[in-house]
Amino acid sequence: MSERELYCDTCEGVEPFEAPPCADGHGADCPELVCTGCGAAVLVTTFTFRLARPSGRHRPASRRRAA
Ligand SMILES: [Zn+2]
Ligand SMILES: [Zn+2]
């Protein structure tokens, strides 16, 4: 089941990737996929990754050196 096609840098093309046996207890949510063509492992963080950056203006660090 858990197989999807992704671009592989090593194979230089789109290859079927499959989830390796996970030893970390991620289960079906394991972000790791292995290229079935060359065996390279990739991390898929497409939907599990959260942007930690607050939207809007960013403040400069209020770190001043009193000279
Ligand atoms: Zn895992
Ligand atoms: Zn590959």
Structure description:
The chain is mainly beta. It has a domain at 3-43. Helix content is 0%, strand content 28%. It contains no helices and four strands. The chain has strands at 3-8, 13-18, 32-35, 41-43. The chain binds zinc ion (2 copies). One zinc ion binds next to loops. It comes from Micromonospora reichwaldensis.
**Mean of all residue-level pLDDT scores:** 78
What order do the SSEs take from the amino end to the carboxyl end, as H and E?
A: EEEE
Query: How much helix, percentage-wise, in residues?
Result: under 10%
Q: Number of helical runs?
A: 0
User: What is the rounded Rg?
Assistant: 19 Å
What's the overall geometry?
elongated
Uncertain spans, ≥5 residues at pLDDT below 50?
none
- What is the SS-derived class? mainly beta
Enumerate the distinct ligands.
zinc ion
Number of strands: 4
Instruction: Summarize the biggest pleated sheet.
Output: 4 strands, antiparallel
Strand content: 25-35%
Strand order of the largest sheet: 1-2-3-4
Tell me the distance between the termini.
64 Å
